[in-house]
Every structure is written in structure tokens, then in C-alpha cells.
Automatic annotation (TrEMBL):
Pfam families: BPD_transp_1
Entries under PROSITE patterns matching the protein: ABC_TM1 (PS50928)
SUPFAM superfamilies linked: MetI-like
Keywords: Cell membrane, Membrane, Transmembrane, Transmembrane helix, Transport
Membrane topology: Multi-pass membrane protein
Species in which this protein is naturally found: Streptomyces phaeochromogenes
Similarity-based family: Belongs to the binding-protein-dependent transport system permease family.
Protein name: Sugar ABC transporter permease
Localization (cell): Cell membrane
Spans through the membrane: 67-90, 102-122, 142-161, 210-230, 258-278
InterPro entries: MetI-like, MetI-like_sf
Length: 286
């Protein structure tokens, strides 16, 4: 190793050691808990991989896993589609686009508790604005957070609404790096707007797009407050994600071993997704 490399390694070592020390103990303790049948105050007897095998045969786990999958897919792709559309719109000569850019960041800037409380007020009760609007349009009594399908749709919409500003900023930054002369050459060759978007814009912003997908997938899978504050995982566990399911197991059912095992399984799947997307980033870089 060169002298420069040794110097950089020595400078990074204190920070790396500190990060390892801070994260190592919780990780090791969680792994120990996942292989024991204990309580919040005691480790309990050793059960090996029983918690993991029980999770894989638990219908509640798979129901939460299916919802987490849909929540992540819609959260990632929905927020990306809306964010990219807003970034493309703000890139054009729209009057007052600086003001719109700030206003469009509000869903991401406003604290989650305030946003969830506002959406709860809009849709939760019989006299809330959205159920009242549905009745006036002739749809009858529509309780958006009491029906399993409508509750899931409301959670999906809330996630997209709160996450698209992040995608808008990442897409906007990627679009700024695209050379305008490429579009001019494409127009000269007779390419339509859709052809320019499909064959120029999307390939040239592929790397930032995949990176934003990885980050948003992590945000969605680990998103506890969105679901817990809006629906609490109900009704009838219809909006129960894996992170909420794990929380309930640990802090409500007092099964920390099983709950932590669920969290480890969730982390393993998320790691596989991240590896797949990182490979796509490498391909896009070629």
C-alpha cells in the first residue's frame, strides 16, 4: 500500500472504529435475542433458528410481507413517477417555478406527525371532508380508513405524497447534468418528445434513478411512522407492514426474539434488493 493510502487509512480509522463500536453492540445483542425465547428484561432459553422458521410459517408474517412489498413498490415507483414529472415541469419555462419548487417541497418538509394528523382529519371519521365529499357525489358512506382496501390505498397515496419531493430533487439534479445539445441533435433528426424522453432522458439519468430507488426502498421498508400514525396497521391488519409487525411483536406481545427475527429477515431481503439495484447502477455506468 502506498504512503498516501496508509495516511488516508489512518485518518479514517478513528471514525470507522467509532461507527463499529456504536453499532456492534446493538447488532450482536439483537442477534442473541433473535436466537432466544426471552422477554424485554431477560434473554430466555436458547431456541436456535426456531424464531426464523416460525416466521416463515406464520400467516401474519406473510400478510405483512405482502403489504410491505406493495407499499415499497408503489412508494418507490409512484413517488419517482410524480417526482420526475414535477422535475420535468419545473425544468420548463413555467411562470413562478421558484415558488412552486418551494411549495412542492412542503410534503417532505412538514413533520410526519402533522402530515399524518392532517390526513387522518381528512379521511378518518364519518364527518371528515373526504367521506362527506363521497356522500355528496352519491357514493354512500365511504370510510377510507375503516375499509381494508381503501385504507391500504390511502396509505399508498400518503406515502407517494410525502416522498415525491425527494424524488423530484434527485431527478431535477440529474436532469441538470444532461447536455441540452443532445436534445437539439435529436430534434434535428426528427425525434418526438416521447422518443427523446425514452431514449435520451431515461438512459442518461439511469444511475441517479437507481440510487434514488435504493434509498426510497430503504425508506419504505423501514417506514414506521407513516403506517403507525395513519392507521396503526389496521383495519384487520390490512396495512400492517413488517416493521409495524415487528414492533407489535416486541413491544405489545412481548416476544422480542420473534420480533427481532422478523426484522432480520426484512433486512436480508432489503439487502438483496440493494445488491440487484447496485448491479443495475454498474451496468448504467458502462
Amino acid at each position: 500500500m502506498s504512503k498516501r493510502g496508509l495516511t488516508m487509512g489512518a485518518m479514517l480509522a478513528p471514525s470507522l472504529i467509532l461507527i463499529v463500536l456504536i453499532n456492534a453492540y446493538p447488532l450482536v445483542y439483537a442477534a442473541i435475542q433473535a436466537t432466544h425465547d426471552g422477554t424485554l428484561t431477560s434473554t430466555g432459553p436458547y431456541v436456535g433458528w426456531d424464531n426464523f422458521s416460525f416466521a416463515l410459517s406464520d400467516p401474519g408474517f406473510w400478510k405483512a410481507a405482502r403489504f410491505t412489498l406493495w407499499f415499497t413498490l408503489i412508494g418507490v415507483l409512484g413517488s419517482w413517477a410524480v417526482g420526475l414529472a414535477m422535475a420535468l415541469l419545473l425544468r420548463s419555462n413555467v411562470p413562478g417555478r421558484s415558488v412552486f419548487r418551494v411549495l412542492l417541497l412542503l410534503p417532505w418538509v412538514v413533520p410526519m406527525v402533522v402530515s399524518a394528523t392532517s390526513w387522518n382529519w381528512l379521511a378518518n371519521t364519518h364527518d371528515s371532508p373526504l367521506p362527506s365529499l363521497a356522500r355528496s357525489l352519491g357514493f354512500g358512506d365511504v370510510l377510507f380508513l375503516a375499509d381494508p382496501t381503501l385504507a391500504a390505498a390511502t396509505v399508498f397515496a400518503f406515502k407517494v405524497w410525502g416522498a415525491f419531493p425527494f424524488m423530484m430533487m434527485t431527478s431535477g439534479a440529474a436532469l441538470e447534468a444532461v447536455d441540452h445539445t443532445v436534445y437539439e441533435a435529436a430534434r434535428v433528426d426528427g425525434a418526438s418528445g416521447w422518443q427523446q424522453f425514452r431514449h435520451i432522458t431515461l438512459p442518461l439519468i439511469a444511475r441517479p434513478t437507481y440510487i434514488s430507488w435504493i434509498l426510497m426502498a430503504i425508506f419504505c421498508v423501514n417506514d414506521f411512522p407513516t403506517i403507525f400514525l395513519l392507521t396503526g396497521g389496521g383495519p384487520s391488519d390490512a396495512t400492517n407492514s413488517l416493521v409495524v409487525y415487528s414492533y407489535r411483536l416486541v413491544f405489545q406481545n412481548f416476544q422480542p426474539g420473534y420480533g427481532i427475527a422478523v426484522a432480520f429477515l426484512m433486512t436480508a431481503v432489503l439487502s438483496v434488493v440493494a445488491v440487484v439495484l447496485f448491479r443495475q447502477i454498474r451496468r448504467a455506468a458502462r
